[in-house]
Amino acid sequence: MSRAAPESPKELLIAGLTPYFLERGVLWFHENFTKIKKAAQTQIWWKTNTLFLEKDLAINLFALLRQLTELGYAKVQTLGGPGEFSHRGGIIEIFPINSDIAWRLEFIGNRISRIDFLFVKILRTDKQIKKDLNSRQNISLLTGLRAGDYLVHLDHGIGRFAGFTKEPGGALSQTAPTADSPEKFFVLEYAKNDKLFVPLDKEEKLSRYIGFESPTVHRLGGALWLKTKSHAKANSLELAKELLSLYGQRAASRGFEYPAASPWEKELATDFLYVETDDQARAIDEVLADMTSPKPMDRLVCGDVGFGKTEVALRAAFKGALAGKQVAILAPTTILANQHFHNFSHRLAKFPVKIALLTRLQSKKQQAKILKELSAGQIDILVGTHRLLSRDIIFKNLGLAIIDEEQRFGVKQKEKFKTWRSENLSRDKHSEFYGIDILSLSATPIPRTLNLTLAGLRDISIIATPPPGRLPIKTFVEPYLEKTVREAVTKELARGGQVYYLHNRVETIGLVAQKIKKLHPKARIAFIHGRMPEKDLLRIMDDFDSKKINILVATTIIENGLDFPNVNTLIVANATRLGLAQAYQIRGRIGRSHQQAFAYFLYNSKNLTDDAKARLDALQEAEALGSGYQLALRDLEIRGAGNVLGREQSGPVNSIGLNLYMQMLSESVEEMKNISY
User: Fold this and answer.
1) For the chain: N or C, fewer Cβ within 10 A?
2) In the chain, how many H helices and how many E strands?
3) What domains appear along the chain, each with residue ranges and CATH number?
4) CA-based nearest residue to 136, from 196, 82, 77, 61
5) What SS3 state is found at 158?
């Protein structure tokens, strides 16, 4: 019986080889086609990782070939499965990862004249295909190269990128070559003026260097690079062994099986004031499914600032409490812990759940009372800072630990997390032991390669889409003028909103607050910084939350976790002092409602270096929602690596670069798995 020929599509979607897309089936792409297209028009992450083609589309054939490579597709002679494309003459054949069939594109000049289906005989198993797709880089790391960037050559080590050339010793070009340009080589510079010319078709030998600090560039030749790689490989084997042991213990232990959703859980979901995004709903479903399974949960929910991770945690905590288990919610700062306590208390007010807050701010008498109630099982949900890791904290029946902004905790504190993950800490009335469930939240993206490495060890949910109705933050980068500050503040206060004014010097922050008061005599102004007594800090934040204060002058203490939807103007004085990733995180503190938000990054022209200007220009260009993944690639990736690997891996990572280390770690994990099996 012959297969029916599918109709040529009006528009063909080609999804990039990202971990997020590789987790989804073909049906998901069909059901969400319209949403994906809309997201690709407004959000940088989606635009970068998707490609839409249609008949009669004007597009350069060679530019399309490069785009397919950047999306992670492999060029082959004959298609053999998803994630591949071939090219001959004016024909491109491609098998998208989001399709059951392949497609043939015919070109006339720089126009797609025809799109036809193409049946491909697949010789590999689904498991082999998935392994192959996961082994590739999902986005070319070599796009946007600039002279002076560090690159790692697999055989020769770390060098500085100098440019492109058509022949060894020839003139250098900084423009990325296309299929019809004369350049044939990457040019890398090493110590003592050594140069390496790498043919463009050997690009797979190169990766962008990402490390905790600037690397050492050696001379070409010799055994030093081989020795360096050997040491890094040995380290990756040790880490792989530790990872497999840690997560193996979790997999072998028994978890508490929570009951199916109760009417109260459904009522809480109905009370949510917003419509869950597809990603958020998926993350909630994945977390609750973990909790009802017989295995202990160890899931990381990773999403950009303001994309709804807290609601995921709330649903999980409520499910835990209803089942008679205690829940610990760990936050890195007193301000964030206090905010979580108020948010959870408000959402769960009508349900019979007791919530308590434990930080250093409570008196010894208050703390003693909380500890007594906790050990007696009278507290269902305990919110706190690292105080929760103290030795005197004893839960009667701990079932779930939620760790917010896990990357903000130190090495010693993370050791406690490891024992939470691997030890059986909870006992029920039948004297049976259960491994507790762990739910971690992070706004710092996990490096793509690390995501793939851990895919079989730790469960990861990615929230990549913003809440519906959320508007991109309009960003202005300008010289500092009092007129700009006055107009920005006046505009925000006139619509009943609130303002963050960031001044990152404790010594002069009070004087700055007075200066702003002169510009706006009727404004209600306060200032905060990290050296203030925490009681004063929380009092001011409570006043700000209740709108008794409408301008808050602050240091970078506002960078993480704060959620005040009424604050929709941010003014940063002397923005050149901020790193790109930090500026992005701080900008994420506004624009958390349906109101248009405005961010002003102001600078003193005398202090504006070329690097600082480049950072601020990049921030202004990347206004789109969710652009954190694209904007600060190096800063965010290495921070994400530090979160999971720990600082003890910084030496090996620095010596060969994060990308090569991740490749080695992935290989080591597979090797150790084979030995174990």
Assistant:
1) N
2) 23, 27
3) 12-135 (3.30.2060.10), 150-219 (2.40.10.170), 247-463 (3.40.50.300), 474-624 (3.40.50.300)
4) 82
5) strand
